[in-house]
Amino acid sequence: QSALTQPASVSGSPGQSITISCTGTSSDVGGYNYVSWYQQHPGKAPKLMIYDVSNRPSGVSNRFSGSKSGNTASLTISGLQAEDEADYYCSSYTSSSTLVFGTGTKVTVL
Amino acid sequence: EVQLLESGGGLVQPGGSLRLSCAASGFTFSSYAMSWVRQAPGKGLEWVAAICGRGSGTYYADSVKGRFTISRDNSKNTLYLQMNSLRAEDTAVYYCAKAAEYSGSYYCFYYSMDVWGKGTTVTVSS
């Protein structure tokens, strides 16, 4: 199972909105509504930001939103803040009953 | 407070074995699927394995299938990962993670993970 494809880096100024894409196939992202997004700060464990494509866990800011179209899922961060600077990973359930993560995106707040 | 605490990591030679443990607290352990996820130094996340709440179903990444075994002891609220035939490419921080969605007795939702441990480091080297 190949990793899902994400851009290596995305940047934006404080207050701006950015979108991170996550491209897979019809056997993973496109086939199921089980896409999640995780935020990871350096040296820390990942944190769940979005599950089931567009649901936010309790306590996660509503500045984070998720969507999906075909084989590509997206995470949008609006009102970008300095604390949003981190690595972001998508994941998806697959037709092999496994999970696959994306390649990861480094978000930089300019 | 929901907590996960991994242990058992260390330095092991290629071809060797290691068993990781993850002690869970603060939630009804048997009602949630659990996963192991690893991260090689400077690399991204890689899902390793998942197990259903009752232990009836297990799922593995192709990279570890046949070498690693995930298991759980619900009476001890503990998750395990038995790792055999270890290779240099298994070197990573290993995280245990709780499924975000309640599975109860009949389902096995392991598609997202909302609580993670701090990780334990496994180094495979001669």
Write a structural description:
The complex is a heterodimer of chains A (110) and B (126). Chain A is mainly beta and 110 residues long. Chain A has strands spanning 9-12, 18-23, 35-40, 47-50, 64-69, 72-77, 86-93, 99-101, 105-109. In chain A, strands 1, 3, 4, 7, 8 and 9 form a six-stranded mixed beta sheet that branches. A three-stranded antiparallel beta sheet of chain A has the order 2-6-5, with no helix packed on it. In chain A, strand 7 (86-93) and strand 8 (99-101) form a beta hairpin. Chain A is globular, with a radius of gyration of 13 Å. Chain A starts with 8 loop residues before the first strand and ends with a strand. Chain B is an all-beta fold. Chain B has no helices and eleven strands. In chain B, the strands form two sheets. In chain B, strands 2, 4, 5, 6, 9, 10 and 11 form a seven-stranded mixed beta sheet that branches. A four-stranded antiparallel beta sheet of chain B has the order 1-3-8-7, with no helix packed on it. In chain B, a hairpin with a 6-residue loop joins strand 5 (45-51) and strand 6 (58-60). Chain B starts with a strand and ends with a strand. At the A-B interface, strand 3, strand 7 and strand 8 of A face strand 5 and strand 10 of B.
List keywords for this structure.
heterodimer, A: 110 residues, mainly beta, six-stranded mixed β-sheet, three-stranded antiparallel β-sheet, globular, B: 126 residues, 11 strands
Enumerate how many helices of chain B there are, as a single number: 0
Distance between the termini of chain B: 40 Å
Helical proportion of chain B, percent range: under 10%
Average residue-wise pLDDT of chain B: 96
Termini Cα gap of chain A: 35 Å
From the alpha-carbon coordinates, what is the Rg of chain B to the nearest angstrom?
A: 14 Å
Largest interface in this structure:
A-B, 26 and 23 residues
Question: What's the helical proportion of residues of chain A?
Answer: under 10%
Question: Judging from the principal axes of the Cα atoms, what is the shape of chain A?
Answer: globular
SS-based structural class of chain A?
Answer: mainly beta
How many helical stretches of chain A?
A: 0
Largest sheet of chain B: 7 strands, mixed
Overall shape of chain B: it is globular
Gyration radius of chain A, to the nearest Å? 13 Å
Oligomer: heterodimer
The H/E string of chain A reads EEEEEEEEE
- What's the β-strand tally of chain B? 11
